[in-house]
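Protein data:
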Amino acid sequence: MAVDSPVPLATSADVAAGQFADHVRDYSPTSLDQPMIEATRQCEGIAGRRLASFTAVPEPHRTQGIDPDEYTEVATLPTDIHGTLGRSYAEALGSGDQVRHVWLNEFAARYPEMWTYSSLQVTILRSYGGSQSVVAASLIGAEADSGHVWFSLGMFLPVGSLIRVTYDGGYTTTPADLGRASKLLAASLVLGEIDPAGTQFGHDRGVLTAQAEAILCNYQRT
């Protein structure tokens, strides 16, 4: 069975060097890694989205209709040679039946400058007309603040087609408040193991969790 091993939002060293050092003093760095991973996954569960860096996440999307503002009958708009060719190809295919957008499920709820996408791979399984692997040059995006991917005009992408997307992403720099939330949840997990009654260290696990949830509400999927 594969082992869940994300890059944690806060590391064992972060907890061992901070205000919870006494709580984790009996943990080896290796054994403390597991609560940090669990705390990271708890952060993602509360937020309802991925936060830590991830690799090769697969997503299926069903295409919907083209935005009417994307394509007009105005023939006098200036375009470069690529736009002209794309428009011609779209007209030949019947542009009203084509789409140009997809939104990835995972994107930065806050601080998009700390979020990175890479290795975006897109395969189109058309509602008619076979399949196609889309090269990166035919895509704009994904945009870190929305997950928006924009297909070039003229792409043969009929309504109802299935788009399979695989990509890497996540916070490559962890926002400070996410790091704090992860440490709070890790401390709660550790206390649940070494002091479940809450009598030894004077910390209430519920208070620690509530503090983490107050941070993570800013990252929750809406």
